[in-house]
Each structure stands twice: as C-alpha cells, then as structure tokens.
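INFO  loader      accepted 1 record
INFO  loader      residues=365
INFO  predictor   begin
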Amino acid sequence: MHEIDLKKVGKIQRLTNKTFQFSKALQEGFYTANYFLKTRKIVEEHLPNQNVYMQFFQWQDNLVVCGVDESLALIQTAANHPEKLTIHALFDGDVIQGNEPVLTIEGRYQDFGFLESTIDGILSRRTSVATNTRDVLAVAQGKPVFSMADRQDDYHTQAGDGYASYVAGITKVSTDAQGSWWGGKGMGTMPHALIQMCEGDLVKAAHLYHQTFPNEKITALVDYTNDVITESLKVAHAFGETLGAVRVDTSQSLVDAYFTRHPEAISGQVNGVNPPLIKALRHALNENGFHHVKIIVSSGFNPEKIKRFEAEKTPVDLYGVGLYLVNLRTNFTGDLVMLNGANQAKFGRKKLDSSRLSRVLLTSK
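INFO  predictor   done
INFO  writer      dumping tokens
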C-alpha cells in the first residue's frame, strides 16, 4: 500500500482559516439543507440547551480520510460559541475503516447542528479524492502523477480536490486553484488548441511556446496528427535539449499510425495510449539520440491502466490522471447518538468508540 508521509508533503497546520475560506452565504445557511435550518429554529424556541453528541463516519474500509481540517475550520468560522464545543477528530491523511468515527462534536444542538450536511459533503468529497489519489500512486511505482482533474467537474471543486490529492501525495497540478490551499502552482505547456491554430504544425507551436517562455523546457503534445513517433522526432530534431518531454494523449477511439506502418507490432488492443506504442516511441527517441526527452502519458488513466503499463515495464516518466481522481466513492453521515449524556439514537445507530481521535480546542469568535 502506498504510504502517505505527511511530513514530506508538508501537512497544513490544523485549523488555519487562512487556508480554508468560507463564503458569507455558506455561513448564513445558503448551502445547508433547509430542514436543518428549520430544526435550529424549533430547538432555539422550544428545546433550548439540548446537549447532543454527533459523530461522523462512513461504511468502507481502507480509505484515506480528508476534509477533517476543513470541517474544523468551518466549525470555527460558522458555529455559535465554538469554544464551548467538545470536539475530537482524526487527521487528514489517516487511513480509516468502515464505522470508524473521524470527527465527533458535543455541545448545544443550535450551536452546530445546522452544519451537519455541509460537513458530510466536505468529508465525502475530500476523502474520495484523497483515496483515489492514494490508489493511483500505489501502482505508479514511484513515478510522479500529474493531476489533470480541472475539467471533470465544476470549477468550484478545484481548490478542495487539489488539496485532497496533495494530502495523499500529488504535488503536480494543472491550475493555480488546485494548488491554492497548499501553495502549489499550475503547470503545463500546450493544448491541442495551440497546434490547431498553427494549422497542425507542432514545430511552429513549440517555437511560439519557446519564444514566449524562453526559460522553460518544452513539453510537446504529439498526438494531434495521430502519429506520435513522427511528430516526436520532428520536434526533437528541431529543439534538441530544449525539448524536455513529449506528451501522448491519443483518444481511446483511435489507433496510432505507427500500427498501420508496423502491423507486426499489434498485440491485443492497441487503441489509445498503449504500452507497445510508448515502447516504440522510447526506442525511436533513443535511437535518434534523444535519451533526455521524457514521456508523459494521459487519456483515461486509472489504477488498472497504470498497473498494466507498469507490469509491462512501459517506459513512462509521468502519468497524467484526471477523471479517476475526482470520482466519488464514499459518503459520510453525521449521526446524533447521545442526548444530555444518555444514549439516544435512531434504531441501528449507536456511539462508536475510537482511541485514535484527538481533542481539538477551538477559540471564541
């Protein structure tokens, strides 16, 4: 299993409201399920000072929890009298099991109960992304993974998703937003659009890129004409040491022209980005003296595809992963299981004990 070393990835200090910023609308309940807001009003008017114990958990084993620090910062920001709440929590990056509490809150219901659904959503999303990231890195054999998960969902998710992937070990991201919570910056060179505006001329596109950003190595996107080896050699001969890498992003619906020229190389499914194509590309680059040029692959990569590439010793230097990282895979629930110090919960639920939770002290606002 991929071990997450939070010292290496630079774990963000717990409860930094400079890191996690919340809109006024969120604090006012705009994103809160309405029945929680109605319940708060009922409790304030008819059941004041009810002391409740709420626990947040989910049902799957071997997940990387994330969103705990963000949830704590939300409580600090939006709860009433946060200093009066008794809170225990795990840390972002902890590996959790099903029916294990990751966050517990005890205090007056009207002070924090309305935050239940928001915290559920934070924990569900961040834990899903962190776990997906862990699973990708676990099969990448130490090779870096580049998060391209900026176009798979609404842009509002980028900062939180980028943070969750960072907690699990990814430090290369597409946008500044993905790195904003931990100080990272977006990276990348050219999309297909630049090549298209150069009328399909990759060398011209690379030249314009280098002219505009002369201090950067070029990463050339080489699948525009569906002939990655020919395009890679063209740009390598044109730029030599200035070419740092080529990226292969062939659609799963296509078969590269290399296999038309070399049908003997066809072994199984060769559509999209595949091991035989990347091996042939590496051979061609080396044979022409371009050992320094790295190979980046993207398009439909997930743990299963990466595992196959690694099992076949495919010469990949960096994997670009998008959709898989942001697929939701779990959902948290916040349950009230104690009332005024006595057990009180809906049928089938009870207080879940854990020795791993740490006390968290919040301050008054």
